[in-house]
Amino acid sequence: MVAQHDLPTPDPETPLRPRQPYRLSTLCVNVENPSMKDQYGSSSVPIYQSATFKGIGNEFDYSRSGNPTRSHLEHHIAKISSASRAFAVSSGMAALDVILRLLKPGDEIIAGDDLYGGTNRLLTFIRTHVGVTVHHVDTTNPDAVIPFIHPTKTAMVLLESPTNPLLKIADLALISKEIKERAPAAVVVVDNTMMSPYLQRPLEHGADIVYDSATKYLSGHHDLMAGMITCNRDDIAKQIAFTINSVGNALTPIDCFLLLRGVKTIAVRLDRQQTTSQVVATYLHSLGFKTILVRDIHQRISDGNGAVLSFETGDKELSEKIVGGTRLWGISVSFGCVNSLISMPCVMSHASIDPATRAARGLPEDLIRLCVGIEDSSDLLDDLEHALIDAGAIALSAQQNKYVRVPPGHAALNKALEQEWFVSAPGKVILFGEHAVVHGVTAIAAAVDLRCYGLITPRNDGMLSVRFNDIDNFYAEWDIMALPWAASTVLGQSERHPDDLDQQLIEAINAGPLRELGPEKSQARNAALAFLYMYIKLASAKRPSVHFGARSTLPVGAGLGSSASFSTCAATALLLLNQRIVIPPIPAPVSADHPHLSHHGRHAIERHSVEEANRWAFVAEKILHGNPSGVDNSVAVFGGALTYTRPGFGKPSGMDSIHGFGSLRFLLTNSKIPRDTKKLVAGVGLMKQEQPEVVGAILQDIENISTQAKRSLADSSEFGRDNLLRDLSAMINENHKHLVSLGVSHPSLELIREKTAASPFNLSTKLTGAGGGGCAVTLIPDDFSDALMADLLAELSANNFDPYLTSVGGSGLGILSPYPEHRNPSANVPQGQVTPPETPDEAANGPQLGNSLRTSFEVNSLSELSGWAHDLGKWLYV
Ligand SMILES: Nc1ncnc2c1ncn2[C@@H]1O[C@H](COP(=O)(O)OP(=O)(O)OP(=O)(O)O)[C@@H](O)[C@H]1O
Ligand SMILES: C[C@@](O)(CCO)CC(=O)[O-]
Q1: Per the CATH hierarchy, to which homologous superfamily does domain 664-806 belong?
Q2: d(CA 627, ligand 1 centre) in Å
Q3: Angle between helical axes of 522-538 and 503-511 (0-180°, round to 10)
Q4: 8 A C-beta contact, residue 548 and residue 454
Q5: Whose CA is nearest to atom 10 of ligand 1?
Q6: Could you tell me which CATH number the domain at 267-391 has?
Q7: Pocket test residue of 514, 566, 622 for ligand 1, highest count of atoms within 8 A of CB
Q8: Residue 867 Cα, ligand 2 centroid: separation in angstroms?
Q9: N or C terminus of the chain with fewer C-beta within 10 Å?
Q10: Four-residue CA torsion sign, 143, 148, 154, 160
Q11: Which Gene Ontology BP terms does the record give (predicted)?
Q12: Counting ligands in written order, which one lies closest to the CA of residue 466?
């Protein structure tokens, strides 16, 4: 029914091919009004920015009563709304106000129960000030409306369909018919803002008056406020024109111009917005969020679903996080703009409805409303996904290789930026193949029962800090914004670190945050460099303010892989913080008798996460060691005992776990001679360059030892325990000799060898790790008596060495479970605001967070550390 204001369809050129009337999307673009031709033929309707018009008895005299730009707009909106008349006023609420002035005291209104908050507010006002009765009814059910219809008193029925934000649908056609039959004088009024005339024209379905907040889809750009009223009844039109003229709330000429301009693109905007909102709804639905979509009856009445959708998260606080975490989706009330918007109706657009009424009307407090714009749908999904991840609403499941919804109760656990992450990794002993492994030879190594621990604690002051208790209690802090971000090449969220270190970033860190650390602080400087390098590479998007602390029960720099276990802790903590790895939601236990996470937490970290941790630990090792083989970090991450062959030497590489190692007893003796792995490794490299044949032969011999040791360990049950121990002893001596030839022993290590080899001990010893000092490893036969051992320990201690009996092959990387049900409530964690006794000055230590593990972590004695960590709760291991 667009007859009166239809664009003239040209006469048929031939009777055989008559022209069709223009379709709606064409009508939307053509704003011409044949009866208001512009005197200059302007293509765009001019703005008649004039309050008055000269002359007597002309069409326009005063802009409150009429203005040419407004007439043009009203003609156009009537045309696309199947209306005979349209009126432009200053806002959607002004439109409703004008319509409600049709009522008189004693009249009754039947209105929906899920109305826009502003509509409710105005209805409440007229109820109390005008004496009109308002019945709120579930208009999705026409049967619920009928009992409230009074043949004479019902003066108006006010409908929204779909409703905002619950998208409830009213059968406009059926309700209009029922009303006309039962209360012929009542007018049916529809708020069509959610649809716009492009998608729904309620006048075609029996409504008497339709109004739109033209601030939304009609204009489309959120750059004006306007309301449109359309109708087909002259009697009503006359009253509306009278009210607008009397009240003076007609739309200004410039806003009429903007609205005319905006409406021309409504078809393309809404077509795209609808397509994208379908994509977004499908995405949210696939993640398992309760997503509200328009459907059913609506299909019969409208031409589309619109571009507003809602979803529930199950947790109001979580919803607030998601809404606050988007960047492309602007947090804003209102909808219908070319830009996408996100909001929480209960705290924003519908906050004016009291919570009890909201609850009674079924408006969930956690509901998130999405108003889809015309941006690229991939960008919108990407932004939404980031917000869901950051809020902890979804998490990566390596098993399913996709993001999955985190059960609402557990969402808080994955708020990685807000919680502490406590990790640990073991040191290692290399039995065969150190140094040679750098040059492609297979090494045999195992985890020892001494560990490094790393703790990341959130700060909230834009600072980043580290404390290395084991390195003269080193503490440093930096302003995060002042870190050399510009020097770093950015890595995508799932991108791997390239093989080569970013030298530009290393130089920038050394010249910037670390510039004041002289050579005497090289240990702390290197550790801080590795940490800052990974922090900048991994945190470029979020830049969280945190404190990182590392402590080790391992001797630092003594050949037991302290750097690899430190690297593993720092890398893993940063990966967890930045959600590059996640601890997947715990599945519900199958039964009380078979809870998950048994097996002492083993295999509780997904493979993909473990490999990612190992890759980044290797990056840190490169910073600390220059040219590491990767054996140390692989043991620190995977634990157990393994053979390791570095890639790139034209033979099979990788690692294999070996068994039979765990039953062996070793004595580790720290010579306490400081040395530098980086220099020692570089020294062997130089020797290889200068004497390739000599070194080549040594490397080949070490390879033979590793191969034979591996075979002996694998076959030990067949050849007997005694043979195994004898073979290993011989190979230990032989491997050590080769290390001496490579120039990496030290007189103190030779002394340890001499002492342990002497009668009555008769033991085999070799240096382990990089040598040059550090530790020696001695194989202890099964029949070595306690008394002999006591003598040996006394002898070594008397020579100022630190002997230590260890077991090997234990757990690799561990992460303290983030799930509260795994935490030990009786663990010694201080409550409330705490200030460590040794570090009273907040300025020098950063602010302390309540209930943080940090204080205990830093002040516990070294001997208490591992017991305390163990008692905190369940540790998840590789
Ligand atoms: N607990 C720790 N806290 C801070 N930094 C540490 C810690 N443990 C190791 N590091 C870093 O690692 C460096 C020690 O690495 P180095 O390679 O010299 O010893 P190692 O790893 O124990 O020996 P190897 O590599 O021969 O097994 C330290 O100088 C420091 O930079
Ligand atoms: C010396 C070395 O072989 C072991 C250091 O623990 C170096 C390495 O493999 O990276």
Answers
A1: GHMP kinase, C-terminal domain (3.30.70.890)
A2: 14
A3: 120
A4: yes
A5: 563
A6: 3.90.1150.10
A7: 566
A8: 29
A9: N
A10: negative
A11: 'de novo' L-methionine biosynthetic process; isopentenyl diphosphate biosynthetic process, mevalonate pathway; sterol biosynthetic process; transsulfuration
A12: 1
